[in-house]
Amino acid sequence: MKHKLILLYLCVAAVLAGCYEDKGNYSYTDIPKYVIDESSFGGGSTLSLAQGDTLTLSPVILSEQGDTLRDIANVEYSWSIDYAQVVSRERDLTYVCDSLMSNALLVFDIHDLVNDLHYAQTVYVSVREKYSGAGFYVLGEKDGHTCLSAILSSSFLGDKVDIANSTIRTVVGVYHAENDEYLPDDPIRLHEHNWYGGGPQVMVITPTELVDVESSTFVKDMTGSEMIDGGWPAGMRAANVMYMGWTDVLEDEEGQIYTRIKSTKELPNSEYFYPVPCKCEGEDEPLTDTHIIVSKLGGNFCLLHDDKHKRLLHVSDIKSDSKGEYTLGRISALRHFEGPAGFVPLDNYEGYNLVHCGYHDQYQYGGTGYSYVFIFEKDGQYTVQTCRIWQDNYKSSTLMVDNMAVLSASEDGSHVNLIDDIMRADSYVYTLPYTTQASNPGAYTFIASGNDLYMLDRTAKSVKKYLSFDAPVTAMCAEWFSSNYMGLGLENGKFYLLPMQNAKNLDDSAKILWESPDDFGRIVSVRTKEANGWGVDQF
């Protein structure tokens, strides 16, 4: 009987279960999954911009199946910096970079409101000062005013400039735009200099004033009147400057030389220029008709061309020599030497005119010596010669000359015509400063004779017409490491970028890499910008 009751209960339970209606909701919905394509964020590279630039990004959003999605319902977008500062809530980003930042994390977030899920993609962003980075300064006269302009591109420091994929930004009249004032009239030249622990500055040299400008902002830092003890001397007209590590040199139109010894390298203009003309060591009369030959930035001396006594002098930038003697700012004559046949002695070139001195090949000799190219004129004939000038066992009071060679004279010293036919009184001469690197084996000196540009190949001892322009060439500069390319300015305001690697073998169609569309006014000086202290200038 007991077993029959249990069986009855089981049967009733089975019947009841079969009659039960499951009223639960078991309808499943797929949760969307989004993928943000990294390639639309720079492919993992840090985005580098200048202050004031506009950053635009259009994220490529993909579904789980790989389909590209544009319009997505029920989502919110946000762009933030370091997950904190929200800069946009639009799908596509348009952001003016008004704040400086270094490797800040830019976060793009998609918020799925239905499922409360987040999908994100990040990229690092650096925003440098407005005009920082590599490029060129261009000094000219435009619309009756001195005009300082900038050409900027991050690609300029590379071995090769890919113009098609480079962003080149030109800012004509950048000094006036940033300072709301014009520079003094009659510009002469530019001189970029660096200071220890800080960035580069560029000085605009005019007869009546020096203006030092911060390179990354183009804001005026200091004037010559503030650099000279007692202010700008009455009647003085400036001609050139040379900044070294500790010693700075100023030249006026009469060829008088003034110096200052900085109290620290950490400030670009510490201490004053002493307003009394300098003398050569061991002499009683101040120097006159003496001119700066600007040498390597950060080097330990610079040369002076004493045209009155037809000799080379040098200014020491070493605190003490091998004997511990303090020599900063000391002006001394080059050590006497004997040269090969036809070599014009640099301690006495009476009867010759020094037309050009350009420095080159610094890395061949390290920090103790630098090579130079000299061009002398006598009776309408030109002598081209090279040599090394170096310190004798770090005795800053003594410079020696060796590795001398004469390119335009035969072994017996007789004259060999190389450049007589192309040189003229107003010719502009420029020697590529860096030519010992494997990437640029050429040893070139360029001679601009009016509208025509000639190349002197010092290795081959040959000269050929290189390019012709529609106005006289007035400025050249190739102060990059290895001198891979050269900026060239014309009297009519045009600027060109010329490739220098293996330049002597280039076809005419490949000799101009880029022409600026801007008019810079009558160009008087071109300088590379922020060349990491490798810059040089020439006489």
List the defining traits of the structure above.
37 strands, 539 residues, five-stranded mixed beta sheet, mainly beta, Immunoglobulin-like, 42% strand, four-stranded antiparallel beta sheet, single chain
Could you describe the 3D structure shown?
With 539 residues, the chain is mostly beta strands. It has a domain at 34-128: Sandwich (Immunoglobulin-like). 5% of the residues lie in helices and 42% in strands. It is built from 3 helices and 37 strands. The protein has helices spanning 2-18, 174-179, 224-227; strands at residues 34-36, 47-50, 54-57, 61-63, 68-69, 75-81, 85-88, 93-96, 101-112, 117-128, 135-142, 145-152, 169-171, 189-194, 200-206, 209-214, 220-223, 238-243, 247-252, 257-261, 290-293, 301-306, 311-316, 331-333, 353-360, 369-378, 381-392, 395-406, 428-431, 444-449, 452-457, 462-468, 473-477, 485-490, 495-499, 514-515, 522-529. It is elongated and about 95 Å long.
Topology record:
Layout (H helix, E strand, L loop, with lengths): L1 H17 L15 E3 L10 E4 L3 E4 L3 E3 L4 E2 L5 E7 L3 E4 L4 E4 L4 E12 L4 E12 L6 E8 L2 E8 L16 E3 L2 H6 L9 E6 L5 E7 L2 E6 L5 E4 H4 L10 E6 L3 E6 L4 E5 L28 E4 L7 E6 L4 E6 L14 E3 L19 E8 L8 E10 L2 E12 L2 E12 L21 E4 L12 E6 L2 E6 L4 E7 L4 E5 L7 E6 L4 E5 L14 E2 L6 E8 L10
Parallel strand pairs: 2-10
Antiparallel strand pairs: 1-4, 3-8, 4-5, 6-7, 6-9, 9-10, 11-12, 11-37, 12-13, 14-15, 15-16, 16-17, 18-19, 19-20, 21-22, 22-23, 23-24, 25-26, 26-27, 27-28, 29-30, 30-31, 31-32, 33-34, 34-35, 35-36
